Amino acid sequence: MQCHIAIFEDALEQLAVLGDISQEVARADTKPLGEEITRILRDQRTLESRFQNLVVDQEKLKSLPNKTKFKENQLAIMDVTNELQHGTHVLAKNLKAHPSVAHNLAKIQNEQSNLQALISRTIRELREQRFDSLASAVEEEKKKKNTLQNTINREKEASELQRSLQKELSNERRLLEEEVNERNQVIQQLKDTIQEINRLTNSEQKYIKKETKAHENSVKQQCQIREQELIEEKNLKSKSIQLEQRAYEQIVDFLTRQRKGLETQIQEWMVKYEEDTEAKSTELETLKQKRTTDLDKFEELVTAYEELEKIVEEDRQTKAREAEEKRVLNERIAACSKIQRWWRGCISLRKATAKPAKKAGKKEKKGGKKKK
User: Fold this and answer.
1) Where does this protein have coiled-coil stretches (predicted)?
2) 269 falls within a domain
3) Which terminal residue of the chain, N or C, has fewer Cβ atoms less than 10 Å from its own Cβ?
């Protein structure tokens, strides 16, 4: 640890010697950067901020269906890129024409002072067995380098984007010129067509005016004739209306008289209806009484009829039994007759067959006698 402290103390002494030398050089007569360079740097920062905003907007405009704003954004990026290049060129030219040695020496002196302070703090911390300031300074330096590298990378990306945008811009310009030429041709064709249409329209308008005038005169005459016909029809309708009015009044008078007569008839019919209703009611009561009497007689007749029906049924059954018995008796008699005839036939047949047998026996006896 003491070795490291000695090294840092030696470096601190050497930096002190360099500080004395830089102070003597700083007294030399040099020209600092002017206000023009400061303005250029401020404009460059503004253009860089605008360039970043345009690049962000370009990513959003790519997804839109309308490509007009996207093309405008590309043109704006190209303009900002050209301005950045021009500003960088002017700044480099001014720096070459007006080098600022004192500014560089002041920067070196500032860095030297910071380094001396850092080494002093580091020596104190090493004596306390730590080196936090040195580690923090190293981290800050790394961050600065990373920031510088990111800036360089962004510059490269911007250059590549500029080249691609220039290429796209040239393509867009070529396409735009072609589209403009095509549109000019279409416009010329449309102009020719419009002239032809105007010529045809003028002649057609003259013809239409003449035709319209003739049609108007014809329609006017037809309307006058129709008007006269309508006037005559109106007069006829007026006469017809008067006749209808008189007929209506007569019909109303006739219907009024008819109504009065019908009302009188209705009253008469109502009286007659009441009388007839009362008479029919009396007749209905008489018929009801007669019906009751007839029903009693009908029930007696029904009872007598049922008794007679029973007697007739019994007589029918008796006759049926007698007829059945007679039929059976006749069948038996017929059967007996058939049996008797059959038996007589059998007896006759036996008798007929028995006589020839006896004759044959006698002949045999006679033959036997002859042989002897």
Assistant:
1) 252-325
2) no
3) C
Q: Above pLDDT 70, what percent of the chain?
A: 66
Mean local confidence (pLDDT), 116-144: 69
Question: Nearest to residue 168, comparing CAs of 53, 278, 57, 75?
Answer: 75
- Is 92 within a domain? yes
pLDDT range class, residue 159, cuts 50, 70, 90: confident
Residue 117 lies in domain:
2-199
The total number of structural domains that make up the chain:
1
Q: What is the pTM of this model?
A: 0.26
List alpha helices for the chain, DSSP H. 2-26, 35-61, 68-97, 101-127, 132-371
What's the alpha-carbon Rg for the chain, to the nearest Å? 77
Q: Which of 251, 43, 3, 12 is nearest to 120 (CA)?
A: 12
Q: Are 151 and 44 in contact (CB under 8 A)?
A: no
Distance of alpha carbon 54 from alpha carbon 62, whole angstroms: 12
Euclidean distance between CA atoms 371 and 364, whole angstroms: 11
